[in-house]
Amino acid sequence: MTGIIGRILGTSIGIPYTVYREIHLRHHAYLNTPLDWELWPYSDPHASLRFRRCFVWFDMLCGTLATPLIWSRICFSSESPVSDKLKRTMQKEYLVIAVTWTLTAGIGIWLLASGRQVFHAETLIFVLPLLLAGNCNSVRKMTEHLGTRSFDPLQGTRTVIGNNFVTRLLSYFDFDLAVHGPHHRYPKLDHSLLKSRMREVQEAAPDTCYPVFIRSRAS
């Protein structure tokens, strides 16, 4: 069932389920190394500093395009670490995405040419999440990962535990994913337990400085 839902969601955002699964598994296993394909080009020692500086702006401003582009490399790059069998599965899923969106665009154009009203104000409810998801992912990635160098899950990520209304609201809707260090160290832990686990880790090693950020209210 998970695979079916994943493939439906992947088709809607242009990132196949198999691509997401393979890249994210490597992101957890090889954090901040050249094998971390999710953080390309920032984790790629062969990418020039100028290219990375230019790409970060593209990533931030055009995340809807940048995110699918980054993730597609594991299917189409000659350096891809996945097997040919997995590549063929990814290619089939990309074909389904291409056909689905080509048909969707074609039907929309045909309806417009027929003089029918296709777009309504309510359409934004379905379109905005698609347009915003890539950009939100890019901003989240910059916050939690960009510039970190450690390979340790708790030291190589930034953990954000906000205590004002805005950060708590965002964290609620993002299932506390910003509590990112524990998410990497304990990937199967329920999201509601991430904050308490981070506190436990800090209390167990009070002399260790973890990259945990808390913005306090002004007194």
Written description of the protein model:
The chain is mainly α and 219 residues long. It has two domains: 1-119, no CATH class; 148-219, no CATH class. The protein is 59% helix and 2% strand. The chain contains nine helices and two strands, in the order H-H-H-H-H-H-E-H-H-H-E. The chain has a two-stranded parallel ribbon. Helix 3 (49-61) packs across helix 4 (63-76). The model has no long low-confidence stretch (mean pLDDT 88).
- Helical amount: 55-70%
Strand order of the largest sheet: 1-2
Structural class: mainly alpha
Runs with pLDDT <50, length 5+?
Answer: none
Strand percentage lies at: under 5%
What is the N-to-C succession of helices and strands? HHHHHHEHHHE
Rg (CA only): 20 Å
Shape: globular
End-to-end CA span? 49 Å
Number of domains: 2
Q: Overall pLDDT, averaged? A: 88
**Count of individual beta strands:** 2
| Count of DSSP H/I helices | 9
Sheet of most strands: 2 strands, parallel
Structure keywords:
mainly alpha; 9 helices; globular; single chain; two-stranded parallel ribbon; 219 residues
Secondary structure: elements and pairs:
Layout (H helix, E strand, L loop, with lengths): L1 H12 L3 H13 L19 H13 L1 H14 L7 H30 L10 H21 L14 E2 L4 H9 L6 H6 L8 H11 L7 E2 L6
Parallel strand pairs: 1-2
Helix pairs in contact: 1-5, 2-4, 3-4, 4-6
